[in-house]
Write the structure tokens for this entry.
Amino acid sequence: MKSPEFLQIHRVDDAVLAHEAAEGLRATRAHVSPKFFYDALGSRLFDAITELPEYYPTRTEAAILSQNGAAIADAVLSATGPAPTMVDLGAGSCAKAARLFGALAPRRYVAVDISVDYLRQALTTLQREHPAMSLVGVGLDFSTRLELPAALIDGPSLVFYPGSSIGNFAHDEALRLLREARTTAAGGALLIGVDLVKPVAVLEAAYDDELGVTAAFNLNLLSHVNRLLGTNFHVRDWRHVAFFDVTASRIEMHLEARRTLTVKWPGGERSFRAGDRIHTENSAKWQPDDFEVLLRQAGFAGVRRWTDAQGWFAVFLATG
């Protein structure tokens, strides 16, 4: 049996992260990057969110991939050839990619996440299940730049980016990432999950569930920033706010001050009045044709898509 390989390309520097958080808090419109959601507790809370009845994306995407698995696999392999290298962006537990192994039979699986440590257990388990497959874990913050060692991509490959995380990027950033994904695919294909525009009530419930799990996920960001930056946030002074901005076609998540207060940290402070907000996340929702335009702007020549019966979610395959 082979053993997984691990490469930590991106080094998490707490001082750099602390500086980034401080700059966001000082901004005219205070904001903190959604990357600060994902400490150990935040990652577990997100896993819980995907199990909520209100949170449709995970189960809807899984159903699309299951129901259309044969057609998707045929289209992928037509672009990549047999036994492609598979590059999984934001791999996490690797469970979504692993469901495709039977149909695609990749010779190499490259799991990309911000931390190799997060990937170790998942890849060790996968290796036992697929002893002949080459498995590589890569620690990389691809939100800044997607660039992998050339030795990992040996011919046309599949880049897999499920979960609609492309919606967290502003338009120009999304276009940059898609162009880099096309380069990474090396003439192969990109398989990507995209959340679509749907009734506002459905969208807002998915980001503000009745149990308050998403609220806890958002508020936990403050505890993470406290540890990194030395701020004195008190979670009970803030509340979770999520709404759909129709004009921008995106869900916005914020933390709203419940009272007038001052947040302090070494070398800085920021005063908030009751009702002032810290912007923590955007999640763009697309019209299918608009996302196809974006893929073509990124240089892909061929685009296919599969959706659920309600048209709530889409899986796109882009080639060329």
In short: Residues 259 and 274 are 4 Å apart (CA to CA). DSSP finds eleven helices and 13 strands in the chain. The mean pLDDT is 96.
